[in-house]
Automatic annotation (TrEMBL), chain A:
Taxonomic path: Bacteria, Pseudomonadati, Pseudomonadota, Alphaproteobacteria, Rhodospirillales
This protein's UniProt keywords: ATP-binding, Nucleotide-binding, Phosphate transport, Transport
Any single Pfam family the record assigns to this protein: ABC_tran
Residues of the ABC transporter domain: 35-277
Gene Ontology CC entries for this record: membrane
GO BP, sorted A to Z: phosphate ion transmembrane transport
Comp. bias (Basic and acidic residues): 1-20
Protein name (record): Phosphate transport system ATP-binding protein
Source organism of this protein record: Roseospira goensis
UniProtKB/TrEMBL annotation, chain B:
Protein name per its UniProtKB record: Phosphate transport system permease protein
Broad class of where this protein is predominantly found: membrane
Keyword set, alphabetical order: Cell inner membrane, Cell membrane, Membrane, Phosphate transport, Transmembrane, Transmembrane helix, Transport
Provenance organism: Roseospira goensis
InterPro entries with a match to the protein in the record: MetI-like, MetI-like_sf, Phosphate_PstC, PstC_N
UniProtKB/TrEMBL annotation, chain C:
Membrane topology listed for this record: Multi-pass membrane protein
NCBIfam families: 3a0107s02c
UniProt-annotated location(s): Cell inner membrane; Cell membrane
Organismal lineage: Bacteria, Pseudomonadati, Pseudomonadota, Alphaproteobacteria, Rhodospirillales
Protein name, entry field: Phosphate transport system permease protein PstA
Length: 282, 488, 448
C-alpha cells in the first residue's frame, strides 16, 4: 500500500513549496452531482495526507484522479467509501456527501455505504474460492436474493458486464485465483458490480497488468459508465486521458485543479498541472 | 447435574427464539430480502442472544450464591431449634460431639462460639447428611437440619428454574417484538460477539491476576505465622514436624535458603550441560552443516523438547542416577543415588533444544554482510564465528540462556523424581539436594488441611518461584527484543 | 606507517606459518560442533533405547492354563443366573481347586500357599468376566488362561533372578539357574520348581498383554493397565480443547483484528508472553487455590485438570493463532470490505477459514504439551490411586503422565517395565499429534 508515501509527502515544508489556490468550496461540476466533498482533511496520526480538498463527482461519468506518487489521490479515494476506517490512526474531517447524505454521519452504516460505493483495488485480490463464489459473495451477505436462480442470474450478468463471462462460463467452479492477472481484475470488477453499487472506486486497477489486459479493462470502464459512476486513480496520464471525462490533479495532498479531461490535458490553468502533464516532474 | 438441566432449558429456548426471530424477519421482508437491514439469520441470532445471555448471567450469579444462602438458612434453623428438648442429646450421642468438643452435659450450642475449623466441620456435616454420605454416625437433629437444608435447596432450585426460563422467555419475547426490517440486528449481534472476544482476551489477564492474588494471599497468611526474614534467610528447612498443630515444636523450620541453594545448584549443572552443547550445535548447524544434515538433525533435536518431563524424570532415576553412582563407586567417590548431578544433567539434556533453537535464531539473524566482511579479510570460518558472529549475537544468546535458566528453575518433574527430599545446604553436586519445586510438590501432594503452615509454605515458595521466573523472563525478553531491533 | 612485520615478504611468510595453526583451530572448532550434536543425539538415542528395552516386555504377559470347574453351588446356588449374583460370587475357590489339582503333591499349608501365589490375585476377575459374558458356563468345566503373578512373569521374561528361558527349560531338564543368595530371591525354591513343572507341561504361555490396555491402575503389577489413565487423559484433553480453542481463537481474533493499539492491549500482549513462560507448577497452585478452594470443584477430577491446562495452553494457542491471522494478506480483507462485508463477516467468511490450518496446528501442539504435563495436575490431586475407569469428567481420575509418575515410584520390577511401556504409549500419542500438526502445516501451507 502506498499509505506511507502519503504521509511522507505531508511534511510541513511542502506547504510553502506550492500552495495552489484551490477551488475550495466552489462546485467543480456544473450539473448533477453524485458525490460532493467539502474541506476534507485526512490525517495519519499527526501527519496530514489530504488538505482541504473540495470536489464534486458527476454521475455516470468517469472521474480520474491523477498526480505524482504520494500526492494523496488514493487516500482521498479511500475516504469516499470509508476504507480508511480500517486504519486505526487515520482520521477524516470535513464533509463528504453521497447524493446529499453525509457519509461520515454517525448513523451511517459503513457496511451499507460500501455496498453503494464499491471498490476495485490496485492488485487483483480474488478470494481463494471459486469464481462463482467470488461474485456471489456480495449479494449473499447483503441478502439481495431469495433464490438460487436469482443468484445465478446476478453472477452471470455481473461476469458478463465485466466482460469475463465468455472466458469463464465453463469453469465457474474453479478457483478465482487460478485466472490470469487481467482476468482476476475483471473478476474483482464483476464482484464489485454484483452488489449493484452506485459508485465504483478503482485504485490504479491496471497497475499490475500487462498492456493487453489493461486495454480490456479500460474498454470495460468505458462501458460501465452507462450504469455506474466511476472514480479511478491512475498513474498513467494516457489512461486518464483515454477513459475519463473529468480529471482532478492532486499534488502533496492538495487538489490543484479539476476540470474536463480535455481542458486539463490541453489547457491547464495551473502551472503545476502543466508541469506534470508535460512530464517535467512526476 | 441439575444446573445442566437449567442450561439445557435456556439453550432450547434460545434455539426456539432463533427460529421465531428468523421467521418474523422473513415474513416482514415480504419476499424482498433487500428490504431488511440485516439478513434474517441475524435477527434470529439477535433473539437467541436476548434469550440466552440474561438467563445465563442470572444462573452464573445463582450457582455460587445458592449453596451459601441455603447453608446460612440451615444454620439459622439449627440455632433456633438446638435448645429444644432432645436435640442436644441426639448431637451428644453422635461422633460429631466428639469432633466439635461438646461437653457431655451441654444443653445448647452457640454456633458463633465455635472455632473456624469446627464451624466448617458443622457445615460439612450438614451437607454430607443431606446427601447421605455422613460418616460421623446419626443424629436425629442433624438429620432434621439436613432435611431442612435439602428442602431449601430443592425449593430454591425450582424457583431458579422458573426464573431462568422466565427471564429467557421474556428476553426472547422482547427481542422478537423488536424485529423489524430497519432494525440493525447485524450490528447488535456483532457487538455482542465483539464483547465476547474482548472477554476472552482478558482471560490471560485474569489468569495472571489469579496467580498473583492466590499466591500473595496464601503467602501473606504464611508470613503472618513465620516471619519473612526467617523464610528468606533461614538456613534450616524441615516442615515435616508441623503436621499436627498440638505437637511440641509444631512450628517446624521454614528457612528456605537450602532450597534456593539446591535449585541454583541443579540449574547451574543443567546450564553447564545445555549451554555448551546447545550453543555449539547451533553454531555448527547455522554455519557449517549442509542443508540436508540440518533438515534431519534439527527436527531430531526438537524431539528432545517434545518429550514430557516425567519421562526425563524416569530416565534420570532409572538410568542416569545409578550410572553416576556406579561411576563414583568405581573411582572411589561416594555419590548419592539422588545426586544433584544426575538431576542436573538430565535437566540439561531437556534444555539443549531450547538453547540451541534460540541461539540458532539469534545467529542466523546476524547480517550476512558481517560474515562477508570477515571472510573478505581472509578470516577462517571459526575465526569469523568466534570474533564476529558470537560477539554480535551475544546479547541475544544471553537472553536465550536467561530464558533457559528460568525454565530450569521452574522445572518440576525431573527433580521430583530424581532429586532428594532432604534440605541439604551444600555445593557438592554428588550429594542429594532438594529444590523449591520439589518442596512445593511434597508439601501439597497428599491430604492435609488447607491452612496449615505446611500448605501455606508451598504457596510462599510458589510466590518466590513466580517472582524469580517472571523477573528472568522480563529481563530476557527485553534483551532479546533489543537485540532483534538492532538488526531489523 | 610500517607494519610491525617489516617487509611484505616476511608478512606472507608469517601468515603461511600461522596458517597451519589456524586451520587446526578451524578443524577443532568444527569437531566441537559435531561432538556437541553427537552428544545431544546420543542422549536422545540412550533415552529411547532405555525406555524401549525396559518397556517392550510389558506388552507380553505369561498366563497359565487352568481347567476350572464352575460348580453351580459355589457360584449361583439359587440358579437365578442374575448378573448381580454372578458378579458377587466367589470364584477364588474354583481357581484354587484347579491349582491344587495341578500340584497334588502340595499338601502342607505352606506349599498350598506357594501354589496359590503362582497366579495373579486378579485371576478370579478373568473367570468372573467369562461367566458374566456367558452365564451358561456355570456348571461346566472350562479351560481358562489366567495371568501369572508378576514375580513369575518377570522370572520368565528374564528380568529378575532366576532368569528362566521358557524354551530352554521346555527342551532340556536343566534346573533353575539361581545367582542370588536365597534371602534375596524374589520367589522361593519351591515356587521355582512349580513354575518349572508348569513350563515343562506346556501350560504356560507368553501372549499379548491385553490387560495392560484394558485395566485401570492396580497394586498388582500384572493387573495394572493404562486404560484408566488414558480415559482420564482423554477427558482432561477434551475439556482443555473445548475451552482453550474457542477462547484462544476469539482472543487472538480480537487482539489481531479489532483491538486498538493502546496501553490496555499492550498489557494483554506482554501478559500473554509472560504467561507462556510461567512454570507449569504455578498454574497448579492457581488451580488448587482458585478452582478447588475458592470454587469448591471436586478434587482429582479431569474437569479441573482441563481448566488448569486450559489456562496453561491458552498462551500457546493465542500466539499461534495470531501468527496465522497475520499471515493472511490484507488484500483479502480489503476485498471483502470493499464489497460491503462487515468486519466480522470479513473475518468469519474469509480470514478465519484461511487462518484455520495455522490455528489448528498451534492447537494440536498446545494439546500435545497438555497431554505430557504432570506437575500442575499433582497439585489438584490427580495423583489419587484410581482403580475404576472414569466415566465422566467429574469422576476421580488420573492421567497418563501422572500414572507414569506413580508407577515409577513403585519398587516392583513389574512396575518398572509398565512405566516404560506407558511412556512408549504416551510418546506414541505425542508423536502422532506432532506428526498430524506437521502434516496439517504442509498440506495447507499457502504461499501468497
Amino acid at each position: 500500500m502506498s499509505d506511507e508515501q502519503h504521509t511522507e509527502s505531508a511534511h510541513d515544508h511542502a506547504q510553502d513549496h506550492a500552495r495552489p489556490d484551490t477551488t475550495a468550496g466552489k462546485p467543480t461540476v456544473d450539473g448533477p452531482v453524485k458525490v460532493a466533498s467539502r474541506h476534507v482533511d485526512v490525517f495519519y496520526g499527526e501527519k496530514q495526507a489530504i488538505k482541504d480538498v473540495s470536489l464534486d463527482i458527476a454521475p455516470n461519468e468517469v472521474t480520474a484522479f491523477i498526480g505524482p506518487s504520494g500526492c494523496g489521490k488514493s487516500t482521498f479515494l479511500r475516504a469516499l467509501n470509508r476504507m480508511n476506517d480500517i486504519i486505526d490512526i487515520c482520521r477524516v474531517t470535513g464533509d463528504i456527501r453521497l447524493d446529499g447524505d453525509d457519509i461520515y454521519d454517525r448513523r451511517v452504516d459503513v457496511v451499507q455505504l460500501r455496498a453503494r460505493v464499491g471498490m476495485v483495488f490496485q492488485k487483483p485480490n480474488p478470494f481463494p474460492k471459486s469464481i462463482y463464489e467470488n461474485v456471489a459473495y456480495g449479494p449473499r451477505i447483503h441478502g439481495l436474493v431469495a433464490h438460487k436462480d436469482e443468484l445465478d442470474e446476478i453472477v452471470h450478468t455481473s461476469l458478463d458486464r465485466a466482460g469475463l463471462l465468455n472466458e469463464v462460463k465453463d469453469r465457474l467452479e474453479t478457483p478465482g485465483t487460478g485466472l490470469s492477472g487481467g482476468q482476476q481484475q475483471r473478476l474483482c470488477i464483476a464482484r464489485a458490480i454484483a452488489v449493484s453499487p452506485e459508485v465504483i472506486l478503482m485504485d490504479e486497477p491496471c497497475s499490475a497488468l500487462d498492456p493487453i489486459a489493461t486495454a480490456k479493462i479500460e474498454e470495460l470502464i468505458d462501458e460501465l459508465r452507462e450504469n455506474y459512476t466511476i472514480v479511478i486513480v491512475t498513474h498513467s496520464m494516457q489512461q486518464a486521458a483515454r477513459v475519463s471525462q473529468r480529471t482532478a490533479f492532486f499534488h502533496l495532498g492538495h487538489l490543484v485543479e479539476m476540470g474536463d479531461t480535455e481542458t486539463i490535458f490541453t489547457n491547464p490553468e495551473h502551472r503545476l498541472t502543466q508541469g506534470y502533464i508535460t512530464g517535467r516532474f512526476g | 447435574m441439575d444446573t445442566l438441566l437449567v442450561i439445557a432449558a435456556i439453550l432450547v429456548l434460545a434455539a426456539v427464539g432463533f427460529a421465531f426471530g428468523r421467521r418474523r424477519a422473513v415474513v416482514q421482508s415480504a419476499g424482498v430480502p433487500a428490504r431488511l437491514h440485516s439478513l434474517p439469520g441475524y435477527h434470529g441470532h439477535f433473539v437467541a442472544l436476548w434469550a440466552a445471555v440474561p438467563a445465563l448471567v442470572l444462573l452464573a450469579i445463582w450457582v455460587p450464591l445458592e449453596p451459601v444462602l441455603a447453608m446460612n438458612a440451615a444454620l439459622d434453623y439449627f440455632q433456633a431449634h438446638v435448645s429444644e428438648p432432645g436435640n442436644m442429646e441426639s448431637i451428644r450421642q453422635s461422633k460429631l460431639a466428639l469432633l466439635l468438643g461438646i461437653p457431655q452435659d451441654a444443653t445448647t450450642l452457640r454456633l458463633d462460639e465455635l472455632g473456624a475449623d469446627q464451624y466448617a466441620l458443622m457445615q460439612t456435616e450438614i451437607r454430607n447428611t443431606a446427601v447421605g454420605t455422613a460418616t460421623t454416625g446419626h443424629s436425629a437433629f442433624i438429620q432434621e437440619v439436613a432435611d431442612y437444608y435439602a428442602r431449601y435447596r430443592t425449593t430454591s432450585y425450582l424457583i431458579m428454574f422458573a426464573a431462568a426460563v422466565g427471564v429467557a422467555g421474556a428476553g426472547a419475547g422482547f427481542a422478537w417484538s423488536r424485529v423489524a426490517p430497519e432494525m440493525r440486528a447485524r450490528n447488535r449481534v456483532e457487538a455482542a460477539v465483539k464483547w465476547f472476544m474482548i472477554l476472552c482476551s482478558t482471560v490471560a489477564i485474569l489468569t495472571t491476576v489469579g496467580i498473583v492474588l492466590s499466591l500473595l494471599f496464601e503467602a501473606l497468611r504464611f508470613f503472618s505465622r513465620i516471619p519473612v526474614t526467617e523464610f528468606l534467610f533461614g538456613l534450616h528447612w524441615s516442615p515435616q514436624t508441623a503436621i499436627r498443630e498440638d505437637q511440641v515444636g509444631s512450628t517446624g523450620a521454614f528457612g528456605a535458603v537450602p532450597l534456593f541453594a539446591g535449585t541454583m545448584l541443579i540449574s547451574f549443572i543443567a546450564m553447564c550441560v545445555a549451554v555448551p552443547i546447545g550453543l555449539l550445535s547451533a553454531i555448527y548447524m547455522a554455519e557449517y552443516a549442509h542443508s540436508k544434515v540440518r533438515a534431519v538433525v534439527k527436527p531430531l533435536l526438537e524431539i528432545l523438547a517434545g518429550i514430557p518431563t516425567v519421562v526425563y524424570g524416569f530416565f534420570a532415576a532409572l538410568t542416569v542416577a545409578p550410572f553416576f553412582r556406579d561411576l563414583g563407586d568405581a573411582v572411589g567417590l561416594d555419590v548419592s543415588s539422588e545426586s544433584a548431578l544426575a538431576a542436573g544433567v538430565v535437566m540439561g539434556i531437556m534444555i539443549i533444544p531450547f538453547v540451541s533453537s534460540l541461539s540458532d535464531d539469534v545467529i542466523t539473524a546476524v547480517p550476512q554482510s558481517m560474515r562477508e566482511g570477515s571472510y573478505g579479510l581472509g578470516a577462517t570460518k571459526s575465526e569469523t564465528v568466534r570474533r564476529v558472529i558470537l560477539p554480535a549475537a551475544l546479547p541475544g544468546i544471553v537472553g536465550g540462556v536467561l530464558l533457559a535458566v528460568s525454565r530450569a528453575i521452574g522445572e518440576t518433574m525431573i527433580v521430583v523424581m530424581a532429586a532428594g527430599l532432604g534440605a541439604n545446604l551444600t555445593a557438592n553436586p554428588l550429594e542429594a539436594v532438594t529444590t523449591v519445586t520439589v518442596q512445593i510438590v511434597t508439601l501439597l501432594v497428599g491430604d492435609q488441611e488447607f491452612d496449615s503452615s505446611k500448605t501455606l509454605a508451598a504457596f510462599a515458595l510458589g510466590l518466590v518461584l513466580f517472582v524469580m521466573t517472571l523477573l528472568l523472563n522480563i529481563v530476557a525478553l527485553h534483551v532479546v527484543r533489543k537485540y532483534r531491533e538492532q538488526y531489523e | 606507517m610500517t607494519p610491525p612485520s617489516g617487509s611484505p615478504a616476511t608478512a606472507t611468510e608469517k601468515m603461511r606459518a600461522s596458517l597451519k595453526r589456524r586451520y587446526a583451530a578451524e578443524r577443532r572448532f568444527q569437531a566441537y560442533g559435531i561432538v556437541a550434536i553427537l552428544l545431544a543425539l546420543g542422549m536422545l538415542v540412550t533415552l529411547f533405547a532405555t525406555i524401549i528395552s525396559t518397556g517392550t516386555s510389558a506388552f507380553v504377559q505369561h498366563t497359565v492354563r487352568l481347567d476350572v470347574t464352575l460348580f453351580p453351588q459355589d457360584i449361583d446356588p439359587d440358579g437365578t443366573r442374575d448378573p448381580a449374583v454372578l458378579r458377587r460370587a466367589n470364584y477364588q475357590t474354583t481357581i484354587n481347586d484347579a491349582l491344587y489339582s495341578l500340584f497334588p503333591e502340595a499338601t502342607s499349608r505352606q506349599d498350598r500357599r506357594a501354589v496359590r501365589d503362582l497366579v495373579s490375585s486378579g485371576a478370579n476377575f478373568v473367570v468372573r468376566d467369562m461367566v458374566l459374558a456367558d452365564p451358561s458356563l456355570v456348571g461346566q468345566r472350562i479351560s481358562v488362561r489366567v495371568p501369572l503373578a508378576s514375580e513369575f512373569d518377570q522370572v520368565l521374561k528374564g528380568n529378575v533372578d532366576p532368569a528362566v528361558d521358557l524354551g530352554v527349560i521346555r527342551e532340556a531338564s536343566t534346573s533353575v539357574p539361581w545367582s542370588l543368595p536365597p534371602d534375596e530371591r524374589l520367589i522361593s525354591e519351591t515356587q521355582a520348581d512349580y513354575l518349572q513343572q508348569l513350563v515343562r507341561q506346556g501350560e504356560i504361555e507368553g501372549s499379548f498383554n491385553r490387560w495392560f490396555f484394558t485395566n485401570g491402575d492396580s497394586r498388582q503389577p500384572e493387573l495394572a493397565g493404562i486404560w484408566g489413565a488414558a480415559v482420564g487423559s482423554f477427558f482432561t484433553l477434551v475439556v482443555t480443547l473445548a475451552l482453550s480453542f474457542p477462547i484462544g481463537v476469539a482472543a487472538a481474533v480480537y487482539l489481531e483484528e479489532f483491538a486498538p493499539k493502546n496501553r490496555w492491549t499492550d498489557i494483554i500482549e506482554v501478559n500473554i508472553n509472560n504467561l507462556a513462560a510461567v512454570p507449569s507448577i504455578v498454574f497448579g497452585l492457581l488451580g488448587l487455590a482458585v478452582f478447588l478452594q475458592f470454587f469448591g470443584l471436586p478434587r482429582s477430577a479431569p474437569v479441573v485438570g482441563g481448566l488448569v491446562l486450559t489456562l496453561m495452553t491458552l498462551p500457546t494457542i493465542i500466539i499461534a493463532s495470531r501468527a496465522a491471522l497475520k499471515s493472511v494478506p490484507p488484500s483479502i480483507r480489503e476485498a471483502a470490505l470493499g464489497v460491503g462485508a462487515s468486519k466480522l463477516q470479513t473475518i468469519t467468511h474469509h480470514v478465519l477459514p484461511l487462518a484455520m490450518p495455522g490455528m489448528l496446528t498451534g492447537t494440536i501442539i498446545g494439546m500435545a504439551q497438555a497431554l505430557g504435563e504432570t506437575a500442575p495436575l499433582l497439585m489438584i490431586g490427580m495423583v489419587a490411586f484410581v482403580v475404576d475407569i472414569p466415566g465422566s469428567p467429574l469422576d476421580s481420575a488420573t492421567v497418563l503422565p501422572v500414572q507414569i509418575f506413580l508407577w515409577s515410584d513403585s519398587p516392583e520390577r513389574g512396575f518398572t517395565e509398565r512405566t516404560s511401556a506407558a511412556i512408549m504409549c504416551l510418546l506414541g500419542f505425542l508423536i502422532f499429534m506432532n506428526a498430524a500438526a506437521v502434516l496439517l502445516r504442509k498440506r495447507f501451507e499457502r504461499r501468497w
